[in-house]
Each structure stands twice: as C-alpha cells, then as structure tokens.
Design goal:
Keywords: Membrane, Transmembrane, Transmembrane helix. This protein is mainly alpha-helical. It is 60% helix and 11% strand. A hairpin with a 2-residue loop joins strand 1 and strand 2. Helix 4 runs antiparallel to helix 5.
Length: 183
C-alpha cells in the first residue's frame, strides 16, 4: 500500500480539525476570556476586577522570594568563578597531574554540593514551607526559610533534625534562619 505525503498530511489535518471541533461543541460554558467577552461590559467582568483590587489586603508577594533568588545568584556566581579557576588549572600545562587531579576532584565536589543543596531545598519546601535556601560554608549547613507562620524553636528544631538525617555528613553543624512571617 503506497501513500503519498500529501494524503498523510491531509488525514492528520482532518483528524485534528475533528478533535478540536468536538471539543468546542461539547464545551458547556464559553471560555472565560475569549476575544468577545474581553471587550463587553458584563456584570461578571466588572465583578471580577472589583474582587481583585482590595487596597486593605495588599501585601508584597515576591519581595521575600526575590531575596532568596538574589542569595542563590550570589552563591552561584562565587562557585562559577571558583569552577572557572579550577578549569583553567586543569587545562593548563603548567601544573602537575596531581594538582590537576585535585582541581578536578574539587570541581566534582562543588557539583555534588550544588545538587545536594538543591535537593535539600526541595525537601524543605515539601515540608510545607513556601521557600527555602540551603548553602554550605566551611562545614556549616546554613538554612534560610521563608515562613508565613513566623518562627519558633520547635520549627527550627524540626528543620535541623530533618537536615541532619538527610544530609550526607550527619556531623555537620546546621543553622536555621527564618525570613518573612510574624516575629
């Protein structure tokens, strides 16, 4: 059975049109923001905008998240500079093979550290915190958490216990800092 490309394209297009038309025929309510409803002055659209604008309840949404992103960028910049120096050392012909091996192992350690910190951040967020930032400095694991519930010794102990049980070095010192929320 020999079919040409034009027939295959035609059948594909025909089936796509059939699926899309069945979807729109079966849809019971019109799309909320289709081209016609945007320009109408219906009570529903006016009510929708009235509910969104509430001057008494305005709170900054992205201020604390921006702080976490800024901290991540600083750590990423520092580590990328260090990786560039190590890469230059590995590629240089001025160093011995032992020095190159040490530099390469340090690059691998930094990569593993980055992934371990990112994994720990995701796990802390899975505990119910909106945002977390984990970094390791001189054997200390520093955890910064965005908390909408405020902070307490109990919450800090929970995070410290969790990090100690899941971190690759259980002897590491863990410090927890809370951002946001009520004091």
């Amino acid at each position: 059975m020999k079919t040409n490309k034009r027939t295959v394209w035609f059948l594909t297009l025909l089936s796509l049109v059939a699926v899309i038309s069945i979807y729109y025929i079966k849809e019971k309510a019109p799309m909320p923001f289709d081209g016609i409803n945007i320009f109408k002055d219906s009570p529903e659209s006016i009510q929708l905008t009235e509910n969104i604008v509430d001057a008494d309840k305005t709170t900054p949404v992205f201020a604390d998240s921006y702080l976490f992103e800024e901290m991540r960028m600083q750590v990423r910049d520092e580590r990328s500079k260090l990786k560039e120096q190590l890469t230059a050392k590995v590629l240089s012909s001025d160093h011995t093979s032992e020095e190159k091996n040490v530099a390469y192992e340090e690059m691998e350690r930094l990569t593993k550290l980055d992934s371990a910190e990112a994994l720990m951040e995701m796990q802390i967020i899975a505990l119910g915190y909106p945002e977390a930032f984990v970094r390791t400095e001189e054997g200390t694991v520093k955890v910064t958490v965005l908390s909408t519930e405020g902070h307490s010794k109990q919450l800090a102990d929970e995070i410290v216990r969790y990090v100690k049980t899941n971190w690759e070095d259980p002897k590491a010192v863990v410090s927890v800092e809370f951002k946001g929320g009520t004091e």
